[in-house]
């Protein structure tokens, strides 16, 4: 992906104004800087959000072309989910479910792949199904083989993340049996499918943990912002956080999202009143929600293998000593492989 550098200060400001405006923006400015806005939006995975905010004002050619291509991808995914229902039990996470529930438009949020959470005992059924239809399995590092929470399968434009754990196991060990769900009807054109998704409270928790896993990517903070304004039961979220010892991660992710997209003080006070927090949590959220972090510091985190993970563990204020000690023998070799680009990283 093309980095967003300091030379783009003016464009960066315009991009953020457009993203945060929710559609109330001078369309002439958007038209003038369309190429630059599209480039940055695609880099951060929020091009669908901007397109659907502005298409009622002007026609953005680049966004329109991207949206047509993306629509065909979503149709293929809906059809694929129909086939998956015959394989076994699964919960659709993030992606299309989040788009349908919180963006109110299945096309309103960019989806790179399908992420499904399955019971451990049913994983083999899905693996066999993927193999049968000719999907290939992505290469796993030795560390992910030991503590990985998912495997990636792909064929053509279809990519599936098969999860037996809700999130990165260095942050929490949550499985299919731990979460609560709701049914969602996904529909696009004449294609439709009903799937099981996480409920509002667990969506907030999963996305918050996902934000730590990917060093607070903008697209995930936007998801969290959307979920927060669906009014999840924060007391229930707090009970879950306490039960599974998730610490301050939901708080930091939620505050960072709110401060970046709206700085809604009433909502921020409500979040703080529901969760236990310390002054350092507020400082961390201030930093994560800054433009410097988004455009500059995050680029640096991905310049050195595992620096993003170390940063997120520091923000989470937890250090899984036993797990880290067990992977030390693999680190030199895996560090070199990641540095050479053997494994994909998402920024």
Write down the domain tally.
Answer: 3
Our count of helices gives 18
Number of strands: 7
SSE string, helices as H and strands as E: HHHHHEHEHEHEEEEHHHHHHHHHH
Query: How confident overall, as mean pLDDT?
Result: 87
Estimate what percentage of residues fall within beta strands.
Answer: 5-15%
Query: What strand line-up does the widest sheet have?
Result: 1-2-5-4-3
Sheet with most strands: 5 strands, mixed
* The first-level CATH class name of the largest domain: Alpha Beta
Determine the CATH topology of the largest domain: Beta Polymerase, domain 2
The helicity comes to 55-70%
Net shape: globular
Description:
The chain is globular and about 55 Å long. The strands form two sheets. It has a five-stranded mixed β-sheet. The mean pLDDT is 87. It has helices at residues 9-21, 27-32, 34-44, 47-54, 61-84, 95-102, 123-132, 142-147, 200-213, 218-228, 234-243, 249-261, 265-274, 279-288, 291-301, 307-316, 321-327, 331-339; strands at residues 91-93, 114-117, 136-137, 150-155, 158-163, 181-188, 191-198. It has three domains: 1-59, no CATH class; 70-198, Beta Polymerase, domain 2 (2-Layer Sandwich); 237-347, no CATH class. Helices cover 55% and strands 11% of the residues. It has 347 residues and is of the alpha+beta class.
Features:
single chain; Beta Polymerase, domain 2; two-stranded antiparallel ribbon; 347 residues; alpha+beta
